[in-house]
Design brief:
The protein is of the alpha/beta class and 281 residues long. It has two domains: 1-33, no CATH class; 36-271, no CATH class. The chain is built from five helices and twelve strands. It is globular and about 55 Å long. It starts with 9 loop residues before the first strand and ends in a 10-residue tail after the last strand.
Length: 281
């Protein structure tokens, strides 16, 4: 961001240096960082199914029941629940051996990977999955919208993130897409069969390096190595073990192993336990 804001002052707010930007200035910066995709597109894709990752215990059973109730108010693809693991239960997963040490939420990662593996093995051609956790809520879209389809997505897309853009009302047919890189806060996304296969290949070949979903976004083919602001503006957010995944990159042997990740111009899913934006009615 700094080269884009070279004529702006950094204000000291309680010891934190921050830019004070207007909405127009902020939009300018974000459009430079994440330009709208104008390349070849696929006019329409159909989402084969939704799979929700959850855990079979009292706490999550209650959350999941409320989520399913909310989701059934919308026109969604075929919905099923995949029961994952508790904090130590992930050791039973076939992907436990791929986890690189005792990173937080290995149980979430293993559950996610098992879903990807199952979907890829059952796919016919390159199909699409809507994956989400058990406390996700649709936002900013009308209940009449058909969530079983997406329109005009980038032709090479492997994964689409629906929770970075504007937190305002939108229509799926008007959605625009931007190249996406790094991040975290995994709670809902669309991923293709080809994307799942790339993730499986990466996991088995290199092992899972970071917390939860961070490796996914660090695998973006559009990722850039940029200063994080941590530890004197170094190029790593946590040395050999990334702690936040904001700007770290996963090193692989070939660009063909990376994911073509895009994010939507609007937020259409949000998480109650860790919202990506304030909830709006």
């Amino acid at each position: 961001m700094h080269p884009l804001l070279q004529n702006y002052n950094l204000d000291n707010v309680n010891g934190i240096l921050t830019y004070s930007l207007t909405r127009e200035e902020d939009d300018y910066v974000m459009n430079k960082l994440f330009p709208i995709y104008r390349g070849a597109t696929t006019n329409i894709i159909r989402i084969k199914e939704c799979i929700m990752l959850s855990v079979d215990n009292e706490k999550y059973n209650e959350v999941r029941t409320e989520t399913i109730k909310k989701l059934n108010e919308y026109r969604i693809p075929s919905l099923s629940t995949y029961f994952g693991f508790g904090p130590r239960g992930y050791l039973k997963s076939k992907f436990a051996c791929c986890m690189d040490g005792e990173n937080a939420r290995n149980e979430l990662t293993c559950g996610m990977l098992e879903i990807f593996d199952k979907f890829a093995n059952e796919s016919v051609g390159n199909e699409w999955l809507l994956y989400f956790e058990d406390d996700v809520r649709p936002v900013n879209i009308d209940k009449s919208e058909d969530l079983k389809v997406l329109y005009n997505i980038p032709e090479d897309a492997d994964l689409i993130r629906p929770y970075i853009g504007s937190n305002t009302k939108c229509n799926l047919k008007d959605m625009e897409y931007r190249r996406s890189f790094t991040g975290g806060l995994n709670h809902a996304f669309y991923i293709s069969t080809n994307g799942c296969k790339k993730v499986m290949s990466y996991t088995k070949k290199y092992g899972w390096k970071s917390n939860s979903d961070v490796d996914l976004y660090s695998l973006s083919k559009f990722n850039l190595e940029v200063p994080t602001g941590f530890d004197g503006w170094s190029f790593s957010s946590g040395g050999d073990k990334p702690v936040c995944g904001l700007c770290d990159m996963v090193n692989v042997d070939s660009d063909d192993e990376k994911l073509a990740i895009y994010h939507m111009s609007h937020i259409i899913f949000n998480q109650t336990s860790l919202p990506c934006a304030p909830f709006k009615d």
